[in-house]
UniProtKB/TrEMBL annotation:
Gene3D superfamilies: NAD(P)-binding Rossmann-like Domain. The lineage of its organism: Bacteria, Pseudomonadati, Pseudomonadota, Gammaproteobacteria, Enterobacterales. Residues 1-15 have a biased composition (Polar residues). Pfam families: adh_short_C2. Keywords: Oxidoreductase. InterPro entries: NAD(P)-bd_dom_sf (IPR036291), Sc_DH/Rdtase_CS (IPR020904), SDR_fam (IPR002347). Belongs to the short-chain dehydrogenases/reductases (SDR) family. Residues 1-20 are annotated as: Disordered. This is SDR family oxidoreductase. Transmembrane segments: none annotated.
Amino acid sequence: MVQKTTIHAQSQTLPGSDEKLKPAATFIREDYQGSHKLAGKVALVTGGDSGIGRSVVQHFAREGADIALTYLPDSEEEAQDAKVAQQLAEQEGRKCVIYPVDLRSADHCRQLISRVVSEFGQLNILVNNAGTQYPNEDLTTLSDEQWLNTFDVNIHSVFFLTKAALPHMKANDAIINTTSVNAYIGPEILLDYTATKGAIVSFTRALSNQIVSKGIRVNAVAPGPVWTPLQPATLGHYNPRWLEDFGHETPMGRAGQPSELGPVYVFLASQDSSFISGQVLHPNGGTMVGG
C-alpha cells in the first residue's frame, strides 16, 4: 500500500523539474521485478524526462525495451531531468537516447520519427505523453494564444507523431496516449486542457477502429491527480495554495505517484493486453467516471 504524503503549497515555473518537487516523487517501486515483457522492443516516450514519462521510461527499460525520449528544448531543468531519466534507463542495461524537440511542429515530429528509426532500426511502442496546462477561471479572458498552444502541444503533436510513426509499426506493436480524468469530470479552471484531453480519448477510439485489423493496438491512460512537476509549475504557479493536500478529493484521499502509472503503460505496451484496443484505463485513485 502506498502511504499518503503531505503536499504543501509550492510553486515552480514551466516546464517544471522533478528535482524541485517537495516531497520528492517516486518513479518505480523498489520491489518491481521486470520479466522481459518488452524485450526486443523500441519505445518512443514523449515528455519522458519527468513525471509520468520518466516512470514509463524506467519501467519500460526494466522490462527490456530500448528507449527514445523527448523533452522540451531550451530548458536547462528539462535537459537535466532528461539526463537523469536516461541514466535510469541505462542502469537497467538498456540503450536510451534523448531528443530535445518542440513537438508543436509537424516537421519536427516527422524528423523525430525518422531519427529514432535510423538510430534504433525499428519503432514498436509510441507513447504520446507530452502535455501542458495552465489554469484559467474565465473563458472570456482565455487568450487565443494559450488556447492554440495547448492544442498544439496536447493533441496536434499526437496526430503528427502517430501519422509519422505508423508506417514503421507492425502487428503486436502499440500506441498509448495520455489523456486525463479531466476529460470526464470537466474542471472549470482547465477548459482548454480538458478539451484536448477529450480529443485524445476520441482520437484513440477512432484510430483503434481504423488500424486494429493491422494488429496494432491503440489505447489511452487517463490519470487522476499525480504528483509531477506540471502541478507546481501550473496550478501552483497560478495559486500555490491549490496544492495544499493535492489529490485529497479522490476516494483514496491522496495523489498518485508516477510509480503507480508506469506499470499501467507496461500492461498496454505488452502482450498482456493483446485483446485490448480502443480503451482507456483509469488510474485515478478510485474516482468513478463513464467511458
